[in-house]
Write a structure and sequence with these properties.
The complex is a heterodimer of chains A (495) and B (491). Chain A is mostly helical and 495 residues long. Chain A contains 24 helices and 3 strands. In chain A, α2 (23-39) packs parallel to α4 and α3 runs antiparallel to α4. The chains are: A mainly alpha (495), B mainly alpha (491). Chains A and B meet through α8, α12, α13, α14 and α19 of A and α23, β2 and α24 of B. Chain B: Residues 464-476 have a biased composition (Basic and acidic residues).
Chain lengths: 495, 491
Amino acid sequence: MAEILAHLTSASSELRAISDTRDERYDTQMRDLVAYIKNYDKDLDTQYLLDNLDPSQHTLSYLLILNIHVDSLQKRTKENVPDEIKPGNDLWAEVAYFLQHFDPIQVRYAGYEWRRLVELLAQAAEVTAKPFLAVHVIKEALLRLNSPGVLTSLHVTFLRLTLLSKSYHHALPVMERWVFQFPTSSVQAYRKHISRPLCSEDTFGDTFISDASGFSAKLTYRDHMRFFLYGAMIYLALKEWNKALHWLSIVISSPVNDSVSKIMIEGYKKWILASLLAHGKLISSPRVISAHVLKVYQTLTKPYASLVDAFERGDYPRLRAEIDIGRSVWRTDNNEGLVSQLFYAYNSFLVIKLGRTFSALTAADVAQRTLAPLAFSANIEDFVALLVMSGTLSATLLHLHGQSDATMLRFFARRESYLNSEIRMRTRLVEEARVLGLITKDANQCSSELQLGNESLQILSRNQRWPDASRVSGDAVGELNGGLEIDEDIMGDGT
Amino acid sequence: MDYTQSDPFYGAVPAQSAGSVTGAGGVDLESLGGNVAGPLVKVDDPPKFELESYIANYTGRTRFNRLFLIGTCSTYLSVEALKAAVAEAKGGRDVSRYENAVRALAEVAPGDPEATLDTNWVDHMKKSVKAETDRLEHELRGYKNNLIKESIRMGNEDLGQHYNQIGDLVSASKAYSRMRDYCTTPTHIASMLFKIINVAIERGDWLNVQTNVHRLRNLQSKQEEQAKNEPKMSAALGLSQLHSGAYVDAANSFLATDPSLGDSYNEVLTSNDVAVYGGLCALASMDRNELQRRVLDNNSFRNFLELEPHIRRAISFFCNSKFRACLEILEAYKADYLLDVHLQRHVKTLFTRIRTKSIQQYLVPFSRVTLESMTKMFAPGVIGGQADPTDSNSPFVQELIELIQDGTLDARIDLEKKVLVSNQVNLRTDVQQSILDSLDNYIREAHIRVLRTNIIQAGLEVRSDERRPRDDRGKGGDTFGNFLPRGPGVM
């Protein structure tokens, strides 16, 4: 055993010693190591090796040995999730420690094993009904892997766990890395000629995560839609309406081949509610949704449509009635919580609207104009105070002396001080610039892909006599449109 | 000669069919022919004019129309006006009019001897009308056989005039239109077009009025002819624009009317009318500078204004920012306007516009105004009657609230200090905000589209499962089993 250990450690330490070595050399070393461990046919004392290997330095060896260990364990206990790996036991601790400390470069050579470990952890946590324990670990693991913009099946599992454990905030770091790519062989095909070794620092996530690498299980359309729907649900739970709306609009604008997925319908229902909660009205749906899909949505979400109608007309009794009538619908759709927030949203939008007409008015006037269930001006005061404190409304409440102690609500003309707003503006600009950079990079990549791998594009342009289609420019984002449509047509022809 | 069935003026039952008139400007027809639906407006206040002298200004068919309108709308003058209308109708040859007038009179004054139908006259007149129609058509046929252009033209003209007299306006306008081919001189064409315009005005076919005015304008004729026709053309055009609700254009047309109009167009309107229509339209559509420059300092229009000094006073009050005085004058003459055949329908809109404009103009110099002073200016009647005229429920404040909500006034009401505060715009913040918003939109849109491309490229579009039979397509049922295990609500 010691001999093997020596071999394993020496290989890794050798690599570390020549850390400035060329990528190709590193690459072969790593592949040799993988082959060495995989072909070692004698029984390994895995526990001994694990004890003596350092996960952060000998990541690859550790990972492979750990897998062998788990394998043998599963064989022995004949259970998919052995007791040892359940939270609180030694193996759980080891796996968790590994996932928080592995070396992201080495792990690229054993994507399948890595994923297996994470999935096992997630299963173990769920089986024991302690999903929260896994959430933190998987979050660290996903962030460490550093694969920005690529969706893996683990992302979906992870969001599901956060929803189960209601630890929404933990999902945010993962969700804030915008997802653009999907690991499927067809996407990677064209990239083969840019062959960089896996270990290179310049190799991006979209290259090393592919079907072949095993970092992700095979994705279906359900997976990406579930990912975005789960993400949206997390934002909804955090009351980040605008972000939720964006994620939901991704769900509802997913391209469809023939049928509409039920996940999309579900997304549309939530999208309607989120739009009411965020804007007080139904915003226009993304333009990429095709008409027939929209029609399907509308026929399947009738109760929601009448809800919207009542809300937009400012017809409080009707809104109330609609909500009561549809109670069973909201319950079966699991949207009861969102629907119940409509009352609050309705009232706050009314008060905010008052702010556009009045610069000051008494609480009694507010009560009279909102016509909401806040029949008593004391309630109104509480409600308005809540709005002011939550920052939704920039206003103050004043108690007047003299005339019957009425309370006066005074709206501010400007939201905040000049300096503050400038600072806020600056931070927002910086943030937007970051996101814009991400998007532009990906949009460029996207259009260059459309240009590169597309003999079919040329055939198409010949067939359909588009003189300039072969020159769809790669750099102007404005031309993204053209590129997209052409691509859709290709798919349409293919099926 | 074919009598079109859709013609509301032909035949003995105009009252019933007039109510169903559709198309361009059927409103005047309704108020003329239809006491079935009842008049739209009831005016209880006595108007300022004297009926006798008022109606004496007009000639032709408009006399009856005006009398009938006054009779049905004004409670104060109804009997007098309707009696005059009956007399007027009996003097003419239009049977249906007579019947209408008598019916209306019977409603307000059942006991009056004139309120019963003179059946002898009706029968006699019907017969004579029939005979006359036949005669004229026969003559026309004869002319046509002889192929004498001038005779055919005159035959058509006579026929048109006859139809006009008996109230068959559609046939009249058809007959006049047929004159077109037989006109030899520009003068003929001009007179034909005027006849068509007059009929169209009475029919309320304002589109037709406009097209024919333009035809008339493009006509190549002698200078003095043109000069003679010009004022009538402007007046007719203005009238049609007034009725289509284009008050600015109407104001411009009326303002461009030459004072030489005099009483030459009395079969449609008088110079007094031009002053009133033009003045009101201008008040409703122009700002103070324009009013001053184009109305008060307009030498030719001054001649009109002198006929109706109250309009002149109202406009100059408006220009001098004495809105209250201006509105009071208009209010005092409201009854007159409501009894005008052309103005009735527009009085409300025009008044609201003038009032809104006054409020807007009044606010221009202020950054904050007390509601009290505004109430004094715009709702003087309220102060006496109500304990707190600036209460949030007073009609004036309600009006202000509506104006603010529909975006007419850029201000907010402060109910504590009872002031109206005008909004201050911070351009810098606004621009920044709009930039951020559009940036946001772009990012979202781009993200959705890039994702979409990649999804399609990765072959991840929604499709029915291959394992399932094809007939499952489109229902989305196959995706049901996979659907969300739990929603957040139940976890």
